[in-house]
Amino acid sequence: MGLAAAALSARAQTPSPLAEWQYSAGVPLMKLYEAKVPDWQVQVGAAASVRPYYEGTQRYHVLAGPSFDIRYRDLFFVSTGEGIGVNLLRADHWRAGVAIGYNLGRRMADDPGRLNGLGNINFAVETKLFGEYVVSASFPLVVRIDVRRSLGGTDGWIGDIGAYLPLPGSSESFFWFAGPTVTFGDARYMSRWFGVTSAQATRSGYPQYKADAGLKSYGVGISAIWFFREHWFVTGDVAVGQLAGSAAHSPITQKATNTVVDLSLHYQY
Fold this sequence. Notes:
InterPro entries: MipA (IPR010583). The protein is mainly beta. The chain has helices at 30-33, 112-115, 187-194, 198-204, 245-249, and strands at 40-52, 60-72, 76-79, 83-90, 94-103, 124-134, 142-151, 157-166, 174-185, 214-227, 232-243, 257-268.
């Protein structure tokens, strides 16, 4: 049974209240608590998530599909959560690396009453730099920092600072984590998601609005995993995110507080 299983869920890598650390919860703790990390770690399954169509909306939908996480020697990984990446630098208490993921963007068809005239934010490949540090085995606080850049879509930068801890009640077959996160965006990212240009104002009826770089949101999340048989386990995630600053005050934003819940079933080889 591996802590890496907690990295699995139903989430697509697109803006949502889910904290960035929840994509890899438990992974950096494996080297502290397991005598030997296996060369190959493979988990496959299916998952479903209830989440907002986009940040700031009142409309929710169900996103379902396959979920998997494949890791080789704490070096390479391919995951529906973390993307395709490599740990370039690593030790017992930390890792740092690069990854490629994706951002599903935002379509006017998702909420025509609110988004008509704003145009689509297209699907984009997303590059990521990340680092994680575990304080100690006796105090297993994990701190994670990452920076991401969309190649297309917004063509902007976004970054997260988060932390989490295993919660009391964790055992060999059940463990759960909780922690906060804060997210920042550059001017290009914030303007594309939350700003309204003069042309968009004319088409949509919204007032022109400038979304500044800086704090985008903050939130808290809980992730859990339960091995109910030797190779079978379920995972669950809950997160609440609060838009802040320019994002919260944007005329596009209907609801500044959003929630996401997901559940998955997996088999670990």
